[in-house]
Design brief:
The chain is of the alpha+beta class and about 120 residues long. About 40% of the residues lie in helices and about 25% in strands. It is globular, with a radius of gyration of 13 Å.
């Protein structure tokens, strides 16, 4: 992932564990409640999920999701072939990420300058 960002002229993303916990919780939720969307069945979006998870940030947030049993390289390839997902990855505004996987549900959460 960071190799693709460097190619786009961006700094590498730094790992942020609290954000990763939010990402993993969303992946698990998608699996257990059998949905695949950025919005949960009860209407919780990324903003609400981050706040509930105790993550604060300065700036912007975004999320990429994928549904596959293949592996991380396949997920990266899928995201890079999708213009909206690729735009998130190549957006140099983002400084940190958290990645969550549960079974076949992948969630990448990108944040700008998280606090805490």
């Amino acid at each position: 992932m960071n190799e693709r960002r460097r190619e786009a002229g961006c700094e590498p993303l730094q790992w942020h564990e609290p954000t990763a916990r939010v990402a993993e919780a969303h992946s698990a939720d998608m699996f257990h409640r059998d949905f695949f969307d950025h919005l949960t069945p009860d209407g919780r979006d990324l903003y609400r999920r981050l706040i509930s998870g105790g993550v604060r940030w300065r700036g912007v947030i975004a999320e990429n999701i994928a549904l596959t049993v293949r592996g991380s390289q396949t997920v990266i390839d899928l995201w890079m072939e999708s213009p909206p997902h690729r735009a998130n990855i190549e957006d140099c505004t983002f400084t940190h990420e958290g990645l969550g996987l549960f079974r076949d549900r992948w969630t990448q959460v990108l944040v700008e300058r998280p606090r805490g």
